[in-house]
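Re: [ENG-882] Designed sequences occasionally contain unexpected residues at chain ends

Forwarding the minimal case from QA. Structure tokens:
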């Protein structure tokens, strides 16, 4: 029996050029590599996520505002314990408890970052109530809210597999509640305004990372760094090159340094 952990990630690009952009799977991939755990990746096409999740009998862990299930990845299957988990934060907690050796995902620290906005958040966020690591859970929710509010900047960046491109775009359109794929584009003055808001939002986070750097606790990474790092991975692959360079350089280069420092945990197995 293969005892490797099995990690389900969302496949982007054509089969010969598979790559990953989705933020929550990135949180899990970074955590698996951070813990130095052996695993294999099962790539799932975006339109197949719901059916794969259902086939593994993993219920949706979140719902859209209209009450319908939000089926997403990552999924982690542990053949050694027969556990199946379908939420990135739950997976991180599981890895910490089941495989305590090595790097500590949740060292004690204060994560005093709060994001508030009047902008609608269309994608449901992870819950934080009752977590074993409440500081990290709240940080996860606030960071996800902050980046999701600006995610339209990244919407037209991914390269899709031609075989499933139209189906994938249709699902993005449905989730965003717009009428067509072109409606997700942000251009001109509207884009400049959203970029300015993105820069301002990152300024609040930069105050935390600027204390020690490149990580929140100096030279030792933890799961809070991976949460932000996962969003930076997505941004690096979906923003236009010139805008990604701006993000890297904003606020004294804090986020460029964080992104680069996490490169050792970004290997795709």
């Amino acid at each position: 029996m293969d005892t490797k952990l099995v990690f389900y990630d969302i496949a982007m690009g054509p089969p010969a050029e598979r790559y990953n952009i989705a933020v929550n799977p990135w949180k899990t991939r970074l955590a698996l590599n951070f813990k130095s755990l052996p695993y294999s990746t099962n790539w799932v096409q975006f339109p197949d996520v719901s059916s794969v999740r259902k086939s593994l009998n993993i219920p949706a862990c979140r719902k859209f505002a209209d009450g319908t299930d939000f089926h997403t990845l990552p999924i982690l299957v542990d053949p050694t314990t027969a556990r199946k988990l379908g939420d990135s934060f739950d997976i991180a907690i599981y890895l910490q408890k089941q495989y305590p050796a090595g790097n500590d995902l949740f060292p004690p620290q204060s994560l005093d970052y709060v994001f508030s906005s009047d902008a609608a958040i269309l994608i449901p966020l992870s819950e934080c109530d009752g977590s074993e690591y409440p500081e990290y859970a709240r940080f996860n929710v606030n960071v996800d809210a902050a980046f999701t509010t600006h995610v339209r900047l990244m919407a037209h960046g991914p390269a899709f597999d031609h075989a499933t491109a139209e189906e994938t775009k249709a699902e993005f359109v449905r989730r965003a509640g717009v009428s067509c794929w072109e409606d997700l584009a942000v251009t001109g003055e509207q884009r400049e305004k959203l970029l300015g808001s993105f820069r301002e939002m990152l300024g609040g986070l930069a105050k935390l990372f600027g204390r020690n750097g490149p990580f929140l606790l100096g030279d030792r990474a933890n799961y809070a760094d991976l949460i932000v790092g996962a969003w930076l991975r997505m941004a690096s692959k979906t923003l236009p090159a010139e805008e990604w360079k701006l993000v890297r350089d904003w606020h004294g280069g804090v986020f460029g340094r964080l992104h680069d420092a996490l490169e050792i945990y970004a290997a795709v197995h």
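QA comment: On inspection the terminal residues look reasonable. The domain at 5-104+113-265 is CATH 3.40.30.10 (Glutaredoxin). Proposing we downgrade this to a documentation issue.
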